[in-house]
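Hi R.,

Quick one: here's the Competence protein sequence you asked about.
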Amino acid sequence: MKMKAWRQYYEISPFTLAVLADERTDGKVISLVVEEEERFYVDQSPRRLMDQACKFYGSSLRGRQDGTKDVCGITHKAPIAVDPVSGMYFFPTNSPQNKYCSWIAHSHIDHAHKTSDNHTQITFKSGEVVMIDVSNGSIWNQIQRTAQFRYQLAERLQYIPKQSSFDQVAEPFA
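And here's the predicted structure, written out as tokens:
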């Protein structure tokens, strides 16, 4: 694993495993981004990075949270579909209002297990490991809620009629 110090900007992608809250010495909350083969800091909070990612795909963090509520009724610590087409589903480790909330990519998780009373080790399919200052029970609850959300959203999306690429082209009004 390579450790790169800093990036000023980062766009969450299908290669993002986790966006972890960290803190600079001056108290500003920043992100430690974990990808399959590298980790680096971004001088923005996890909440801001998640909101930017949602906006890139046509919504906002608040919009994605509202969508989760509409699909399956989850209102607290709601998982989100940053982009369901590319399989980018993330769940928060704490309330997203908490400045130390981190976000975990559901699709990349291999397993999670308890390491101490209030800590959980998450191992990703790539072999990367992160330690989260949240109970194992809470993490497993988030994993299961995200799986339920993914299933219910997939059920809805399967009934959208598939159109040819010609049907999707917008034509100007005559």
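The chain has one domain: 2-156.

Cheers,
M.
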